[in-house]
Structure formats: C-alpha cells, structure tokens
Amino acid sequence: MNIVVVGSGIAGLTAALHASEAGHAVTLVTKSMLGDGCTPLAQGGVAGVYGPGDSAVRHAADTLSAGAGLSDPEAVDVLVRDGAARIAELIARGVAFDRAADGSLLLGREAAHSHARIVHAGGDATGAEISRALVAEVRRAPIEVIENAFLIDLVVDRGSVRGIRMLRDDALADLESDTVILATGGAGQLYTHTTNPIGATGDGIAAALRAGAAVADLEFMQFHPTVLAAGPAFLISEAVRGEGATLLDDEGRRFVFDSHPDGELAPRDIVSRAIAKQAAHGRPVLLDATMLGADRLAARFPTIDRVTRERGFDWAHEPIPVTPAAHYLMGGIITDLDGRTSLPGLFAVGEVARTGVHGANRLASNSLLEGAVFGARAAAALGASGRFDRLGDLIPEPEISLPEPVEGCEPFSRAALQRLMWDQVGLLRTDDGLADALVTIHSWRTSASAPTTGAEHEDANIMLLAEATASAALARTASVGAHHLTASPALIGA
C-alpha cells in the first residue's frame, strides 16, 4: 500500500517505521524539519517500566483515576499492555535511557503515579533523545521524507480519504495515497501561554473537521502546572516535583494541599487550577527545589538547570516563579484501538487523536507511550480487515446554536484569539464567558477572507478549533477534569 504519514513526532515516526518495515511504500510529510514539534521538547519520560510492587494493572488504575472517570478502560488496557514492547523497541532503536551503575533502568515518579515507573533520558531530555534515535532510523529506512510542507486539507473521494493537499514552496500540491495517517500533534497555540512550539496550530484536527471526521473532547485541554514565569515559555518538568520539590504561595505556604491531599503530586488539572486561583488574586507562585541541592539538580535535570541559570535564577538556592500553560490536548479525532477514524482511509495517532486513554485529564508521561503504542498499532492495521465502530460508545453532546456575527468586537489577530481563549476558555471557565467567547470567535470566522499563505491557513485552523473548543466546553455543563466551571468570572493572569 501507498501510505502518507503527516507529522514527525514519536507517533508519526513510529507509524512510518512500522509501516515501512511491513512492506508498505511510505511518504512522511512534516510541517517543518524532520523531528521538530513537541516530542523533542518532552522532558519527563515514558511511563511503563514496573519495579517491585508495581504492575501494568496499577498503571492502568492510576491512568483511569487521573482521567476523572472518562477514560476508556479498553484503550487504557491496550496502552499498558503494549507499553513494555514499545519501550523495548525504543531501546532497540538506539534510545539511551538513563541507567544505574548496575545497568538497570532508572525510574522516576511524577504526579498521580502511585509508583516510580517512568524511564527518562539525559535526565530531562527524554523527548530529544527519542526523536534523535527515531529520526536516524527513518533516515536509514526506505521512507520518502517531505519537509517544510504544510497540510492544507485531506483529499476525499466518494467518502474515503485518498491523499492530502499540501502547501510547499508557496505552491499547492496533492499527494495521493491509499491511506493517510495523521500524526500532526495538538493545538497549544490556541492559548497565550503554552509549552507547545509555534507550529502547534491544530492543523490535522482542523483538516479532519473540514473533511467530516468525528472529533470529541476538545474541551479537555491540559494545562501543565509549572512553566517558568520569566521569558519565553519553558517547561519545568513534573519530575522535579516527583523528586520532592514543593509549590509555595507568597507567604511560603504549600497551598496545593488546600485542594488535594496529595498536594504537589495531585493530578495536573488540580495543581494547575490551584496555581491559577493564586494568580487570579495577584499572588505569585514559586517552585522550591532547593532541598534537592545543586549537584542533584544539575545531574537529574541538566536542561532545566542550564535554562534557569541562563535566565538569572539559581534554583538550587532560591525558589523560581512558575505559571500554568496549555500543554496537551486530550481530545481530537476519534479513533478505535488501531487508529482508524470515522473516515475510511484515515488513521490518526498521537495527540491529534482521541483514543480514549486520557479521559478528562492525562496522566503524566503517558503521552510518549501513547504515541509509540498507537503508532505501531495503526501501522499493523493497514490493509487488515477491521471496521471503525467507536461512535456508538460516545454520549452525544447537545447541539449548540452558533451565534449571529456581531459588530464592534476586537479585530482578529492571533494574539487576540489567544488572550480570549486564555481568559474565557482556559483553566477557570464560566457559562457567560464561554458564550461570549463563542460569539467573538464565530464573528472572526465568518468575516475572515479565504486563506492563501501558510500563516493565514494556520489562523483559519486555530479559529476553527477555537470555535469547536468553546462549543464543546459550553455543551459540557458539569465540571470534570480539565473542564472546570466557576460561579463567577476569573481572570487568569501570568
């Protein structure tokens, strides 16, 4: 079969390698350079290696608990069941995970995990090491790579996806295929503050929406609790808190215990909201890692140690300011357990997909694992008999009537949309704020000209996703996981 894979993070690279090794002709298309995107920025690691007293069953239980009751148990079972093989595969492909003196894998622990089960590389450079190894494998494989190619749309013929339309060197071109695997990542650029790179504009989900693919759970955007609140967004890994660092308010108090008995190791949505509430009242939040000592911080977290020092902080001797930031989209294109979507000929893997694993809140270090597990499963399902049947398992969301365009709202700019999403469709939401946001976004979309440049297509994509996200959030009338409704408006500042 002729396969087009769009995206070159862990999910896309894994799918491309497995498809090529199965004998398919594979073309990998990527928006920028091969290996760019979110994967090389991932710090924490890959969950799924179990020490004494731990097991896949316990990992599944932690995943289901973090998902706030909305995770699909069958998808979670697949994740933890296939995880060991995928981690072993990464090692076989050259990923150098950190090891103890006796050669055993070093295991870290992050929030909402009951055990230390996370393998890491380079201390806090796990994603970069995985990307390096997989990119090298792709370069050696008989895989055609097309870089700097922007996904414009899916090509649909008689109800089936038959390829993609891309923008390359300022010219449109169609690439035909028997099957398209989308691995285009998430949409952190919907928000003012995000850990995602500039290219994370939700292009794959937007293209799938325009083609008629089913999506779900777009209201569940995970905000990482700890991003350095000085200079460009820089993630401070959750593993730092797993090692013992604490969060302090302006009076030096560990305030997260007010929200959850696990304090700093509570699920991410809870920790992020606790910080956001402090910020809403003008109170700075500090991450205190001084108890770990300079030598341990430099050895375990060399990248964070270097960047914090470059920005003028000596985190071995003083707490550092942090803020939440949009990090990971739990929703996306609905898939079955093999990556099939509601559109024949279209698969989706990684953050672009809604597998059901994460529910309303992702467990830390399950994202790289998900990309590896479902990337391999999608490749194995190519050409195999199988039928997408996940829609019957979903509770339909009520229809939201789109508002009429209004005059007098702020002119569209990407920055204006990001501020609106941050303030009204962010960590703390209200019905009125969501409705107001939807009015403004819909007005922007209906008045926008047809896009021609790559930047204009990105703007069109984030407007489409912003509208779909606000609509999904307004339709979900009860707080759950990352979707949290408050009784009164709150401005989240950072």
TrEMBL record:
Cofactor(s) needed: FAD
Keywords assigned: FAD, Flavoprotein, Oxidoreductase, Pyridine nucleotide biosynthesis
Cellular location(s): Cytoplasm
Keyword Oxidoreductase: yes
Signal sequence, start to end: none
Enzyme class: oxidoreductase
Pathway connected to this protein: Cofactor biosynthesis; NAD(+) biosynthesis; iminoaspartate from L-aspartate (oxidase route): step 1/1
EC numbers on record: 1.4.3.16
Main location: cytoplasm
GO molecular function: L-aspartate oxidase activity
Pfam families found in the cross-reference section: FAD_binding_2, Succ_DH_flav_C
Domain FAD-dependent oxidoreductase 2 FAD-binding, residue spans: 3-368
Oxidoreductase keyword on record: yes
Fumarate reductase/succinate dehydrogenase flavoprotein-like C-terminal domain ranges (all copies): 414-484
Catalytically driven reaction(s): L-aspartate + O2 = iminosuccinate + H2O2
Family: Belongs to the FAD-dependent oxidoreductase 2 family. NadB subfamily.
Job description of the protein: Catalyzes the oxidation of L-aspartate to iminoaspartate, the first step in the de novo biosynthesis of NAD(+).
Family annotation (NCBIfam families): nadB
Name of the protein in its database record: L-aspartate oxidase
Provenance organism: Microbacterium murale
